[in-house]
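Quick one, probably user error.
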């Protein structure tokens, strides 16, 4: 069986409207506001809260699934500690959009 290398990732593209709403809503890293440990450093970047549930699939890139986290401390922490971070971020989003509470 011949092995074929994976295609390089295109990265995540966020629709401009959704990216703008997230930036205005969060105004910077939400890590300290939701209880993540440590101080912020680095630039704020968008982070998907809920996973796609499928290998090679992208999760929803909307205001209802995205938050700003600093790339020096809280984005890496959320990636490594997903089981702890995700409920805190979901609760934050539910406070922002109570009509969409799960």
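Nope, works fine. Designed sequence:
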């Amino acid at each position: 069986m011949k092995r074929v290398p994976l295609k390089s990732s295109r990265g995540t593209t966020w629709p401009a409207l959704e990216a703008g709403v997230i930036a205005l809503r969060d105004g910077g890293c939400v890590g300290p506001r939701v209880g993540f440990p440590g101080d912020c450093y680095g630039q704020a970047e968008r982070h998907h809260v809920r996973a796609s549930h499928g290998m090679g699939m992208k999760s929803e890139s909307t205001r209802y699934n995205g938050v700003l986290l600093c790339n020096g401390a809280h984005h890496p922490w959320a990636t490594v500690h997903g089981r702890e971070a995700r409920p805190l971020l979901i609760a934050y989003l539910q406070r922002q959009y109570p009509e969409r509470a799960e």
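Residues 16-100 form one domain.
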